[in-house]
């Protein structure tokens, strides 16, 4: 096991990793920007290091400074959390080059799976279904030729993309030519790589992902699926498991496909394989080479601490359980709490939390780095916490979620709690019959 772990992140995920380290008996080092000096992850860590000004590019994305902080404190491993540098192969390589362990997959695996075109090829080699599409396209003319082969509408996607960025939908040639240029600019700006590829656009699919975990001894397992179709602007709003939209036969095929891909990629550590689902068919879209925001959904269902498992695997230990040992009991739903005003176009709502009283009771979990008096900085992602519920049935989980959301008292900022309460009373959500475009349709209606 490691001597000391530096957590290269902020907010609730940094606090989550700090706690996991401490439960394993490993001291945790927090890093923070000047905007996060009073943050909870800093307070709870065994040590903390200021790594720069508020701008992420000068702090949480500053590879050199983070490596320096690890060396200064004697850390022998770095956990990247999610976002920021979590899927940056150059960062993973810099960590290992500095003689430390990166708590995640290898830089090579991140590169292979981070390039969406390469990941498609890998999936095909592992006999995992993919959406009809193309290799990389270098021009609008090439994109038009490809679109004519697979049929409109098509999605233009950034090869280095993620988080819904660098994606456009085109219904015809004119839209495609415009979209190629716009997507290329956005991808270049967001990822430093303007490479694009095309996929057939599926109308009304579900977005379902499978949690996988693998070690350095060739063992790989899945921890079942998460339903992630409730999205706004391709950003997940809530997640649940089991998916109410797939049957057991599809679940088994999809989970087995995810494990095949992990093996094909020589993957080690936690990862998530994302699929689009239409009827009984599913198609691979990408693999996220990190812990996910929504990992607590899986933890509530299986009882497996995914972050501790990440740390153990990175330290060289084998997986702590076999596939047949993974429980899958009840139903879990996670609600992302964003500091946004859903009644005002989801405008960001940074500011001071003047009053806070979090819900509790059986089957209720709150992952958050907020406290009363905490000032939410305007420099980072708007997600400030997650409410996760578990119950034996989906109906009971919905009822428990409604009670917990009503119990959540949060003043001083606007949040998406009212949106979640609205969704819990929505017929489509209650029936489980919703798709990736549903929430946008509901909000526009």
UniProtKB/TrEMBL annotation:
Function, in words: This protein is a component of the acetyl coenzyme A carboxylase complex; first, biotin carboxylase catalyzes the carboxylation of the carrier protein and then the transcarboxylase transfers the carboxyl group to form malonyl-CoA.
Keyword field contains Ribonucleoprotein: no
Keyword Ligase: yes
Subunit text: Acetyl-CoA carboxylase is a heterohexamer of biotin carboxyl carrier protein, biotin carboxylase and the two subunits of carboxyl transferase in a 2:2 complex.
Gene3D superfamilies the UniProt entry points to: ATP-grasp fold, B domain
Name listed for the protein in its UniProt record: Biotin carboxylase
Known EC number: 6.3.4.14
Pathway: Lipid metabolism; malonyl-CoA biosynthesis; malonyl-CoA from acetyl-CoA: step 1/1; Amino-acid degradation; L-leucine degradation
Any GO BP: malonyl-CoA biosynthetic process
One Gene Ontology MF term: biotin carboxylase activity
Pfam families: Biotin_carb_C (PF02785), Biotin_carb_N (PF00289), CPSase_L_D2 (PF02786)
ATP-grasp domain mapped to chain residues: 120-315
Start and end residues of each Biotin carboxylation domain: 1-444
Catalyzed reactions per annotation: N(6)-biotinyl-L-lysyl-[protein] + hydrogencarbonate + ATP = N(6)-carboxybiotinyl-L-lysyl-[protein] + ADP + phosphate + H(+)
Organism from which the protein derives: uncultured Rubrobacteraceae bacterium
């Amino acid at each position: 096991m490691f001597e000391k772990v530096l957590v290269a992140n902020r907010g609730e995920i940094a606090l989550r990793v700090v706690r996991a380290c401490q439960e394993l008996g490993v001291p945790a080092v927090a890093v923070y920007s000047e905007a996060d000096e009073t943050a909870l992850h800093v307070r709870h860590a065994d040590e903390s290091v200021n790594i720069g000004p508020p701008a992420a590019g000068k702090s949480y994305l500053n590879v050199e400074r983070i490596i320096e902080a690890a060396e200064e404190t004697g850390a022998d491993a770095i956990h990247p959390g999610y976002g920021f540098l979590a899927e940056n192969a150059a960062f993973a390589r810099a960590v290992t080059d500095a003689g430390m362990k990166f708590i995640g997959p290898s830089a090579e695996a991140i590169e292979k799976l981070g390039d969406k075109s390469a990941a498609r090829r890998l999936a095909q080699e592992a006999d995992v279904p993919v959406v009809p599409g193309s290799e990389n396209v270098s021009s609008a003319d090439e994109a038009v030729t490809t679109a004519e082969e697979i049929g409109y509408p098509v999605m233009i996607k950034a090869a280095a993309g993620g988080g819904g960025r660098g994606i456009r939908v085109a219904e015809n040639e004119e839209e495609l030519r415009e979209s190629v240029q716009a997507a290329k600019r956005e991808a270049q700006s967001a990822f430093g790589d303007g490479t694009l590829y095309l996929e057939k656009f599926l109308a009304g699919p579900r977005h379902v992902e499978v949690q996988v975990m693998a070690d350095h001894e060739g063992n790989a397992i899945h921890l079942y699926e998460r339903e992630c179709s409730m999205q706004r602007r391709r950003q997940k709003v809530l997640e649940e498991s089991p998916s109410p939209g797939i049957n057991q036969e599809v679940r088994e095929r999809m989970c087995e496909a995810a494990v095949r891909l992990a093996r094909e990629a020589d993957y080690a550590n936690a990862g998530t394989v994302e699929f689009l689902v239409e009827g009984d068919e599913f198609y691979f879209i990408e693999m996220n080479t990190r812990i996910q925001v929504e990992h607590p959904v899986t933890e509530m269902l299986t009882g497996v601490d995914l972050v501790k498992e990440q740390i153990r695997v990175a330290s060289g230990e084998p997986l702590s359980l076999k596939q047949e040992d993974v429980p899958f009991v009840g139903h879990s739903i996670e609600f992302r709490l964003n500091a946004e005003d859903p009644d005002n176009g989801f405008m960001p709502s940074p500011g001071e939390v003047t009053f806070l009283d979090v819900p509790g009771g059986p089957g209720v979990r709150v992952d958050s780095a907020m406290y009363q008096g905490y000032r939410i900085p305007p420099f980072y992602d708007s997600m400030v916490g997650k409410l996760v519920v578990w119950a034996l049935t989906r109906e009971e989980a919905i009822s428990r979620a409604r009670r917990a959301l009503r119990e959540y008292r949060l003043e001083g900022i606007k949040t998406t709690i009212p949106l979640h309460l609205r969704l819990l009373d929505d017929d489509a959500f209650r029936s489980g019959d919703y798709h990736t475009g549903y929430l946008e349709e509901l909000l526009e209606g």
